[in-house]
C-alpha cells in the first residue's frame, strides 16, 4: 500500500446555494466551492448567486487559495448559447477556476471561447468508463464527475487514464443515472435537465399486485465518512458534498466533519469517527436512513428508503453550534480575516504614504502632499482611527493599535477624508498583490491561473470515411426498433414498404437463439441498439456486436452513451465500415452539439424534450447532417442500476435472456411500466402512455430526416395496430388516429 505521506490530499468540494453557505463552508474548511448563477445551473430553485456576488466570491476565495467552480450543468437551447457566453465572460475575466458542464455543445463553445477555463464534465453526462473520458478529453475536459453508480474499482480504472476524478461523498442520491431522467419532465413538465426536477422519485407508488404504498424509487442519502480511507486510496482527486439547495448549517456542518477526518487520515494513517460527529451528520437534513452509496454495492433493497423519503428531524443544539462556529450571527457573517500591519508616514511638505503588510504580501500607496497645519495638525490618534476602519474588507489589524506604526513630522495637516482614501488605496493594492502571489490576477484577458492544467484537447478529431446513412431522397422511409423476437417477426411478416432500417437490442442479439435465422431472411439493414448504460462488467458484449459489424451481418450501431460512442468510433476508424447513430439519450439540444456529434457519428436522433419548432430549426441549420425523429414510442423516464424486482425481493437475474416487465402505480392510478434487463442488471422506467405524433407533413420536406417507431412492451395486437397505422400515415394515406391512449410529448412546447 502506498504510504499516506506520498498521496495527494483530495480537494474537499462543498456546495453553496447562497452567500451564507459560501462563507460557512470556507470557514468550515472547504478547499473549493461549487455554485450557480441565476441561469444554466441544475438547481434552478436554489437561491443561487447574482453575477456581482459570484465575482466577489471568486476574489474572496482566491485570497485564501480556494477555488470556485460554476455549475453550467443543464442542456442549452440554440437561442441560449450567446447568452451563456455573455454570462460567463465577466466571471472568466474575474478568474473563475472552472465550470461543471453537461452539454457537449457547451463544452465545445467554452473550449474555444475561454481557453484558460478548466472544463469539468458533470455527473449528468453519465460517465462510466475510460472511453467516455477519452471522448471528453478531446473536448478539452480535464476532470470528470463519474456516475454515482460506479464502484471503487471502476473509479480506479478511470483514474488510471490520467484525468482528474471528482466523486460525491455525501448527500442525496438520484434513483436514475443523473442526466438520464425524464420522469419529472414528462409527468410534471419540469425537466431535471433544465434544473427544475420535481423529484417524482420521492413520491409513493404501489408495486404491481399490491395496494400498499411504498417509496421504491427513493434512495437513501449517501454518507461515506467511514469510507474515507478507501476513497483516498482510490486516488480520487476531489471529494464532493451534495446540497446546493440545503441550508447553510448543513453545508458548513458536513464540510467541517469531512475536513476533520480527511486531515486525521493524513496525519495518523487511520480515522476513528466519534459518536458526536455521527450525531451531527445524522442531524443535518438527512433522510431517515443512510447508506454508503454504490462504492461497494451494485444495488439492493437496503439502499432504498422504502417507508419514507422525508428528512429526519434536526437537532437545534447541533444547528446552533454550527452557526456559532462557522456562520456567525444574523447581523454579521463570521468572516475569516487576513491580519495586516500598517506604517503611515505624514511629513510636512512631502507626499503622504502608507505601507501595508499581510497575507505574505507588501503594498505601498502614496497620496497628496502633506500641508502645513494652520491650526490643529493631525494626531497619531486621527491616523489610528482611520486605519482601523477595515469594515467589510477581508483584513483586520494585527492586534488593535499594535498593528499600526505612525510617523509624523513637522506640523502636518491631512484631511481625514484623504487618509481614508489612502487607506482604501493601499488595501486594494495589497489585495491585488495577494491574488497575484496566489496565482491569480484581475486581468481582462481572463483566468491566468486556470491555464496551467488545461488540456490541449484534440482540435480536429478524424472523421471515419464511410458512406453516410441512407437519406429519404423524397421517399417516405422510416425505421422501427423492436424489443423482442415476437415484435421482430410481426414487423418482417408485414413486408412494409418504406422500411429502411430495423433496430434490435443488444440483449436480443446476445441472447435470442432464433435471431440469426430470422435475420438471415431479412433484406432490411439491421442495427444494434446498445445498452442505455455501459458498465465495466458488460464491456465484453461490445466485442460480440463488433463481430457482427465486421462480417456485415449488422450494418450499424445506435449508441446511447458516450462510452459506446467512443468504442465504436475507434473501431470504425480501424477499418470496420459501419454506421454509427447517436440515440436520443446522447443529448443534442443545440447546433454546437450536433457539430460535435457529426465528427463521431453519421446520424443523430432528435431530442425527446424539444418542440417541433426546435427540431425543425436543427434540421434546417444542419441540413448536411442526417437526423432521425421518434414519432411513436414510450419515453424512457429513468435508467437505474437499482432494480424494482430486487427491491420487491423478486430478483430475476437467473434469467438474463428474458425481458421482465412490471408496473408501478402512482397516486393518480396511472400505471408506469418498468423493464428489467437482467443481462445488464439494469432497469428502465417508461412513460405511462406512448408518444404518438400524427402530424408529419411538415417534416416530409426535410430530406435529412427519417422517422422512427419504437416498440417496447406492445403485444402482438398492439404491434399490428401501430405498424399498420404508421406505415399508412408515412405513405401519405390520411387515416384517423387509433383509439389508444397517447401523448404528443413536447411537440407543441419544449420543456422549460
Short structural summary:
With 752 residues, this protein is an alpha/beta fold. It is built from 22 helices and 32 strands.
Please give a structural write-up.
- It is a single chain.
- By secondary structure, this protein is an alpha/beta fold.
- The protein folds into 4 domains: 291 residues, TIM Barrel; 99 residues, no CATH class; 197 residues, Phosphoenolpyruvate-binding domains (TIM Barrel), CATH 3.20.20.60; 54 residues, no CATH class.
- Helices cover 30% and strands 21% of the residues.
- It is built from 22 helices and 32 strands.
- The strands form 5 sheets. The protein has an 8-stranded parallel beta barrel, surrounded by 6 helices.
- Strand 23, helix 18 and strand 24 form a beta-alpha-beta unit.
- Helix 1 packs across helix 11 and helix 9 packs across helix 11.
- It is elongated.
- About 4% of the residues have low confidence.
Descriptive tags:
TIM Barrel, 4 domains, alpha/beta, eight-stranded parallel barrel, single chain, 30% helix, 22 helices, 752 residues
CATH fold group of the largest domain: TIM Barrel
- Uncertain segments of ≥5 residues (pLDDT<50)? 443-460, 465-475
Q: Spatial order of the strands in the main sheet?
A: 1-2-3-4-5-6-7-11
Count structural domains. 4
Classified in CATH, the superfamily of the largest domain is Aldolase class I
Q: How would you classify the quaternary structure? A: single chain
Per CATH, the architecture of the largest domain is Alpha-Beta Barrel
| CA distance, first residue to last residue | 50 Å
Q: Which strand-content bin applies to the residues?
A: 15-25%
Determine the mean pLDDT: 89
Radius of gyration in whole Å, from Cα? 30 Å
- Helix/strand/pairing category: alpha/beta
* CATH first level of the largest domain: Alpha Beta
Amino acid at each position: 500500500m502506498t504510504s499516506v505521506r506520498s498521496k495527494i490530499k483530495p480537494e474537499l468540494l462543498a456546495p453553496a446555494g447562497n452567500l451564507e453557505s459560501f462563507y460557512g463552508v470556507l470557514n468550515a474548511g472547504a478547499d473549493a466551492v461549487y455554485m450557480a448563477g441565476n441561469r444554466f445551473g441544475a438547481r434552478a430553485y436554489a437561491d443561487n448567486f447574482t453575477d456581482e456576488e459570484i465575482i466577489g466570491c471568486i476574489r474572496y476565495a482566491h485570497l485564501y487559495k480556494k477555488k470556485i467552480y460554476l455549475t453550467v450543468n443543464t442542456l442549452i437551447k440554440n437561442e441560449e448559447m450567446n447568452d451563456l457566453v455573455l454570462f460567463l465572460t465577466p466571471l472568466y475575466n474575474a478568474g473563475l477556476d472552472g465550470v461543471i458542464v453537461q452539454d457537449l455543445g457547451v463544452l465545445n463553445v467554452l473550449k474555444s471561447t475561454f481557453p484558460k477555463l478548466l472544463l469539468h464534465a458533470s455527473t449528468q453526462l453519465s460517465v462510466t468508463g475510460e472511453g467516455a473520458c477519452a471522448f471528453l478529453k478531446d473536448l478539452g475536459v480535464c476532470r470528470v464527475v463519474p456516475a454515482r453508480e460506479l464502484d471503487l474499482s471502476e473509479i480506479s480504472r478511470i483514474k488510471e487514464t490520467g484525468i482528474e476524478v471528482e466523486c460525491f461523498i455525501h448527500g442525496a442520491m438520484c434513483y436514475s443515472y443523473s442526466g438520464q431522467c425524464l420522469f419529472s419532465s414528462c409527468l410534471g413538465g419540469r425537466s431535471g435537465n433544465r434544473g427544475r426536477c420535481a423529484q417524482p422519485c420521492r413520491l409513493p407508488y404501489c408495486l404491481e399486485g399490491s395496494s400498499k404504498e411504498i417509496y421504491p424509487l427513493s434512495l437513501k442519502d449517501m454518507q461515506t465518512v467511514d469510507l474515507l480511507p478507501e476513497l483516498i486510496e482510490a486516488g480520487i482527486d476531489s471529494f464532493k458534498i451534495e446540497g446546493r439547495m440545503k441550508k447553510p448549517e448543513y453545508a458548513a456542518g458536513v464540510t467541517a466533519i469531512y475536513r476533520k477526518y480527511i486531515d486525521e487520515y493524513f496525519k495518523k494513517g487511520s480515522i476513528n469517527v466519534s459518536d458526536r460527529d455521527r450525531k451531527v451528520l445524522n442531524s443535518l437534513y438527512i433522510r431517515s436512513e443512510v447508506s454508503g452509496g454504490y462504492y461497494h454495492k451494485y444495488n439492493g433493497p437496503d439502499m432504498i428508503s422504502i417507508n419514507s423519503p422525508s428528512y429526519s428531524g434536526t437537532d437545534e443544539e447541533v444547528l446552533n453550534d454550527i452557526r456559532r462556529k462557522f456562520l456567525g450571527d444574523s447581523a454579521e457573517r463570521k468572516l475569516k480575516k487576513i491580519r495586516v500591519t500598517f506604517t503611515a508616514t505624514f511629513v510636512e511638505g512631502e507626499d503622504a504614504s502608507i505601507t501595508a503588510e499581510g497575507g505574505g504580501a507588501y503594498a505601498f500607496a502614496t497620496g497628496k502632499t502633506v500641508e502645513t497645519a494652520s491650526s490643529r495638525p493631525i494626531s497619531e490618534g486621527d491616523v489610528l482611527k482611520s486605519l482601523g476602519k477595515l469594515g467589510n474588507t477581508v483584513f483586520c489589524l494585527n492586534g488593535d493599535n499594535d498593528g499600526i506604526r505612525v510617523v509624523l513630522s513637522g506640523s502636518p495637516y491631512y484631511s481625514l477624508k484623504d487618509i481614508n482614501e489612502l487607506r482604501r488605496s493601499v488595501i486594494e493594492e495589497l489585495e491585488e498583490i495577494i491574488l497575484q502571489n496566489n496565482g491569480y490576477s484581475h486581468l481582462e484577458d481572463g483566468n491566468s491561473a486556470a491555464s496551467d492544467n488545461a488540456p490541449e484537447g484534440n482540435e480536429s478529431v478524424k472523421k471515419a470515411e464511410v458512406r453516410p446513412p441512407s437519406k429519404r431522397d423524397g421517399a417516405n422511409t422510416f425505421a422501427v426498433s423492436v424489443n423482442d423476437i415476437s415484435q421482430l417477426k410481426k414487423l418482417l411478416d408485414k413486408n412494409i414498404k418504406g422500411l429502411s432500417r430495423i433496430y434490435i437490442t443488444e440483449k436480443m442479439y446476445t441472447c435470442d437463439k432464433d435471431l440469426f435465422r430470422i435475420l438471415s431472411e431479412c433484406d432490411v439493414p439491421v442495427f444494434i441498439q446498445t445498452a442505455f448504460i455501459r458498465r465495466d462488467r458488460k464491456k465484453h458484449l461490445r466485442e460480440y456486436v463488433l463481430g457482427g459489424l465486421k462480417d456485415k451481418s449488422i450494418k450499424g450501431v445506435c449508441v446511447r452513451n458516450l462510452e459506446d460512442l467512443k468504442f465504436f468510433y475507434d473501431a470504425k476508424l480501424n477499418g470496420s465500415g459501419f454506421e454509427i447513430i447517436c440515440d436520443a439519450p446522447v443529448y443534442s439540444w443545440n447546433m454546437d452539439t450536433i457539430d460535435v456529434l457529426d465528427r463521431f457519428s453519421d446520424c443523430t436522433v432528435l431530442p425527446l424534450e424539444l418542440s417541433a419548432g426546435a427540431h425543425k430549426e436543427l434540421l434546417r441549420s444542419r441540413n448536411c447532417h442526417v437526423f432521425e425523429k421518434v414519432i411513436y414510442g414510450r419515453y424512457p423516464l429513468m435508467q437505474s442500476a437499482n432494480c424494482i424486482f430486487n427491491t420487491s425481493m423478486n430478483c430475476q437475474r437467473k434469467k438474463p435472456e428474458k425481458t421482465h416487465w412490471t408496473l408501478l402505480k402512482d397516486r393518480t392510478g396511472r400505471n408506469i411500466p418498468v423493464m428489467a434487463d437482467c443481462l445488464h442488471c439494469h432497469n428502465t422506467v417508461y412513460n405511462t402512455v406512448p408518444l404518438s405524433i400524427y402530424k408529419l407533413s411538415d417534416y416530409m420536406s426535410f430530406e435529412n430526416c427519417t422517422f422512427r417507431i419504437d416498440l417496447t412492451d406492445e403485444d402482438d395486437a398492439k404491434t399490428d395496430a401501430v405498424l399498420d397505422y404508421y406505415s399508412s400515415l408515412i405513405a401519405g394515406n390520411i387515416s384517423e388516429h387509433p383509439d389508444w391512449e397517447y401523448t404528443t410529448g413536447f411537440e407543441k412546447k419544449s420543456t422549460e
